[in-house]
Write a structure and sequence with these properties.
Strand order of the largest sheet: 2-1-3-4-5
CATH superfamily: Flavodoxin domain
Structural class: alpha/beta
Number of domains: 1
CATH topology: Rossmann fold
Order of helices and strands: EHEHEHEHEHH
Number of strands: 5
CATH class: Alpha Beta
Distance between the termini: 10 Å
Oligomer: single chain
Number of helices: 6
Helix content: 40-55%
Shape: globular
C-alpha cells in the first residue's frame, strides 16, 4: 500500500458493525476508532431512543476521539442502519469533523438484504459535504454466510484505487 493514511471510524451498538470495521481496518492496514455514544441505549427504552433519535435525525453526545481525521487522506465511516438512517453518534462525528475530511468512504450494516440503506448515502454526503469514494452495505445474512469478506475485498479496491 502507498504511504497514504486511512482511518476507519465507526459506531456499533451490538458489535456487528465493529466486526466489519475491524475486518476493513485489517485489510487496509490502517488506524481504527470506535465512536462512543454517551447516551444510555440499553433495554427496551434504549431501543426506542435509538429509533426515535434516528428518525428525527438527532445528534447525541459522544466521547472525544483520539485520532484527528485531518491527518488522514481517507476516512472510512461506519454505522448500523437505524430506521433507514445513520446513527446519531455517527451524525455527531460527521458534523463535528466534516471540514477535516479530505476523502470519505462509508459502510453500513443492517438486518436485512432489502437495502433500504440507500438513504444513508444521501445523509452521509449531506452531513460531510463530501461525496463518498466507496460504499459498502453488509446484511446480517452476509455476515452469517461470510459473504461480507468478499464485499470488503471489493470495497478495499475501491478505496485504494482512489488514492
Amino acid at each position: 500500500m502507498s504511504n497514504k493514511k486511512i482511518l476507519v471510524v465507526f459506531y456499533s451498538k451490538t458489535s456487528t458493525t465493529k466486526k466489519v470495521a475491524e475486518c476493513i481496518s485489517r485489510e487496509l492496514n490502517c488506524d481504527i476508532e470506535e465512536i462512543v455514544d454517551l447516551k444510555k441505549r440499553t433495554g427496551i427504552v434504549g431501543y426506542v431512543k435509538c429509533l426515535v433519535d434516528a428518525l428525527l435525525k438527532r445528534k447525541t453526545p459522544i466521547k472525544a476521539c483520539i485520532y484527528d481525521p485531518e491527518n488522514y487522506d481517507i476516512v472510512v465511516l461506519g454505522s448500523p442502519v437505524w430506521a433507514s438512517h445513520i446513527t446519531p453518534a455517527l451524525k455527531t462525528y460527521i458534523t463535528k469533523n466534516s471540514s477535516r475530511f479530505k476523502k470519505i468512504a462509508y459502510f453500513c450494516t443492517q438486518l436485512s438484504n432489502c437495502y433500504k440503506s440507500f438513504k444513508i448515502s444521501d445523509e452521509i454526503e449531506r452531513f460531510s459535504r463530501n461525496k463518498p469514494i466507496g460504499r459498502l452495505k453488509v446484511s446480517r445474512e452476509d455476515i452469517k454466510n461470510k459473504e461480507f469478506l468478499k464485499k470488503i475485498e471489493i470495497f478495499k479496491v475501491e478505496i485504494l484505487n482512489s488514492l
